[in-house]
Amino acid sequence: MLYRSLWQGWGNRLLxxxxxxxLAAIALGLGHWITAIxxxxxxxxxxxxxxxxxxxxxxxxxxxxxxxxxxxxxxxSWGWWGQRQWWAGVLAPIAILLAARVHPAWGxxxxxxxxxxxxxxxxRRSPQISPLMLPWLSPLLAGLWGALVxxxxxxxxxxxxxxxxxxEQWNGLLLTMLLAVLSIGAxxxxxxxxxxxxxxxxPVFRGAAILYIEFVRGVPLVGVLFxxxxxxxxxLPSGWTVDRITRAVVALVFFxxxxxxxxxxxxxxxVPRGQWEASRALGLPLPFIxxxxxxxxxxxxxxxxxxxxxxxxxxxxxLVAIAGLIDLMGAARSVLAQPEFLDRAPELYGFLAxxxxxxxxxxxxxxxxxxxxxxx
Length: 376
Known about the structure:
mainly alpha; MetI-like fold; 2 domains; 18 helices; about 80% helix
């Protein structure tokens, strides 16, 4: 099929050769710029500020602990749930070496990730251990992921035996990841509830869900962020204060839940009607029909659309920079405001593109692995 599309006939051959020449010219030019022209001091000098912002250096061990735990758990999860990819064995050593050149602790992160993959793959493939692990390792991994969120919030914010770090010092990539994790975690249940409300037979619930979804889908995210950051403090009762990070998370969840609700609703409508009829014929209560039969199938169908929405939500976190928060994009803007780095925007934005692209790629691969796991 690929040969017929690209090389059959003189017209296809000519177009293929032209495209190959153009791609080679672009690749050579980009490689020459990366290796000979670009000045990466703007990234290396400001790497700490781009990643953690004004977080106190003496407390960085908390962030390293979170990073190591997350990567080890991610590697084990990928080894247990994911599919083997040929490119992973090629890129993993290269990524570890590059990370180690930037900082030894970053190399340790890469080693933990790869080590977790090896452990997860070994548990999955070992004929003596895999049958014993199969019933309980997946719920255990899911529980560890759920416990990692409050543990990370405690380590970042402090309290309960740790030195408290004000939220004004949560900046850079740390803030971006925090906004993404909290927003995605809160968007999923709210989107499911809205989808169920839109499918409800009660006019009050159905009308409220439709009104919410259609109104939010007609409003830009920038407007929602400005309302949350500027207008919300004005309308709150006297004495009530909500920090800016919480307001940003509420705005992101408020916006993205409407779109996720439509993704879930499409999955619900794709469930065969016979499933409903069989459930009713068996006399199952309505909560059991939704929770045990309809929703599991609907969510499985909607995994690709939901993953796309979560990736878009992760990229939309960069918009909080225009509302005054110093996330990764806001930190980059602060770096470019320094006189010695005024003309280094291509290098810095290239680094940001690499970070956002790599994280979004991992999200897409995780959703693909989950989809294959559910369909197997």
